[in-house]
Design brief:
alpha+beta; six-stranded antiparallel β-sheet; globular
Amino acid sequence: MTCVEKLLSISSEPLAPGPTALPKILEPYPAGLELFHMLECKNGFYAFESALHVFPLTSAVGMSLEEWNADSLWRGGYRDLAEGLLFFAEDAFQDQYCLSAKGVLHFHSETGTTGAVADSIEGWAENILGDYQCKTRWTLASKWQAGNGPLPIGKRLMPRIPFFLGGEYSTDNLWAGDPIEGMRFKTDLALQTRELPDGSGVRLIIGKDPRHQ
């Protein structure tokens, strides 16, 4: 059994009917065909108590992969930080897994920074299975759900105080919110702090920047 097959075997029912053809949105990426084959087997799914969410190619339950990657939704707010990336999965706290010209990357949504994960979808699945507690944020997400009930479909966990700004990794710092609004907030956070040295004081501006009114 491959790592992709193992991941699919422990995941939810598919979120949409299987795709019939490779969509153009996947064609530019070396791992695009491999992602398509995984979604042929199971077109979008949740795993590890919904801590891992993989987007379906077509819309049925929640966002499709193409809808989630629309510039007008939230990704345009990251500007050049999201250039050349295709976001196909997310962990419980909305850090994204994405395709790039180099393979699969992990995109930290609060900062817009990326880290290499694997050069293939099989390697990504192996990475997830090897440390799912950390890679999907399952440990804290499971504790939150033990006290608050299952995470509703279409919701993600968000910190009341951003982790990047010293928010605690605790259930008291988490709430279940709308994923689009959550990512839009994180785009602002990433852009307002992208050039600050480590340890800098931060004053976040919510809404329109008064300097630009």
